[in-house]
Amino acid sequence: MAAERALRTGVRNDLAAWAALALAPQGQAPARHHRLMIRELDAVAGGGCDRLMLLLPPGSAKSTYASLLFPAWFLARRPGAHVIAASHTAGLAQAFGRGVRGLLLEHRARLGVGVDPRSRAAHRFGTTGGGTYYATGVRGPVTGRRADLAVIDDPVKGHAEADSRVHRDALWDWYRSDLLTRLKPGGRVVLVMTRWHPDDLGGRLLAGTEGWRVVRLPALAEAGDLLGRAPGEALWPEWEDAPALERKRLAMGDRAWAALFQQSPRLPGGRLFQVGRVAVTDAALPGAAVRAWDLAASVSGDWTAGVRLARSADGLFQVQDVIRLKGGPEEVVQAIRAAAERDGPGVVVGLPQDPGQAGRSQVAFLATRLAGWRVVSSPESGAKAVRAMPVASQVNAGTVSVLAGAWTGAFLAELEDFPGGACDDQVDALSRAFGMMVAAPGAPGGARVARVDWGER
To answer: Angle between the 70-77 and 15-23 helix axes, to the nearest 10 degrees?
Structure first.
């Protein structure tokens, strides 16, 4: 009896213990990536994280832990809690609902919570602790319901939906307008998915400001792997080893493999930059530097980006910092000024000049706010891809490195998707910075940068 009491206490307070108990009848046990998921989900339940994104490949059992074991345990740990679960179709959501219901029925004694006997539906039921569980397809109705926890599992059905801007926009509107408004104060959201497209739900959330905790686990490990795997090591070798994954990669093609199995989606028409040739390092490259800016064309939807690029005496380049923001004119001016102060007066500031007097006036105004710094400007000319080709050739030759930072992943992702990606502001700023460096002998890093003619000011 004492052992049973201890077991019940452990199961109700420890997600790992609950997972081991629930999986034991099937002869299963958590693998190392499952144990990482368990720790992250436990932080969600404990209040240490309210936005968790789990990005894993198909066949990694991510749904077993995030959409079956976790909701059942959450309802036991937090009696009276309300859970909304959503998937790409109502049928899949209902299947998860039946699974959660079955776990609560089977383990009621040890969890301390079961299914309210008055609840009959698989996708909608109450618990004996006063909580509720409701499953729906994404873009399905959630009006009139409230949630302490929302679990979104595989919101994208396939490439046809992922490649459709209409579908992506509809899913985004449902998430923002329907689901988020149903969260109670302190409500948590767990998104578990396989990536399909740079602009899918995960991609849009990563570009936003909600502050997501992201666990990205590719099928074959890359540098800096969260599990400490060596590059090329399989995620779950007991299930599918590296040679089997390589055969699958060859059969699928690069685009599908990068998205579904490596969680690095890209669009057709990208690959101008061979991002795999870029070394990510913690050591700053000594040498002269410039900071080039790409200014947003509108306040609401576009990004302003500033890229600091350094060049060593032996001709190597390094992207040392990227600033990216959406804001009004004064916020942009403040960001440019703050970056210049951090960089120091030795770092030349490069600005684009739009055609006409308005462009000249904008640059002249910015120059007055940057007294003490060397500011240069020139008009943009030619297509974006053409302007990016010189620096792309250096990237592809392996002469460009990147400092590790919070911005690094988004920067490299934009390079990889260019010119077919949704954004190009960072690429434009990088192209300008590189042009400043190599325009002619004599400037920072061996180039001469012509001063802008301010005209009347």
So the answer is: 130
Q: Kindly state the DSSP code that residue 278 receives in the 8-state scheme.
A: P
**pLDDT < 70 positions in the chain:** 267-271, 298-301, 355-361, 440-457
What is the structure's pLDDT at 270?
Answer: 52
Angle of CA points 418, 420, 423, to nearest 5° = 65
CA-wise closest residue to 336 among 426, 325, 346: 325
Degrees, nearest 5: CA angle 225-228-234 = 75
Angle at 186 between CA 327 and CA 100, to 5 degrees: 120
Closest to 127 measured CA to CA, from 89, 170, 72, 168: 72
Q: Which candidate, 42, 188, 178, 21, places its Cα nearest to that of 111?
A: 21
Other beta carbons within 10 Å of 357 = 10
Query: Cα–Cα–Cα angle for 239, 242, 244, nearest 5°?
Result: 70
How far apart CA 85 and CA 87 sit, in angstroms, is 7
Q: Which of 101, 457, 409, 114 is nearest to 263 (CA)?
A: 409
Domains annotated on the chain, with CATH: 2-217 (3.40.50.300), 275-438 (3.30.420.280)
Whole-number pLDDT of residue 61: 96
The predicted pLDDT at position 301 comes to 61
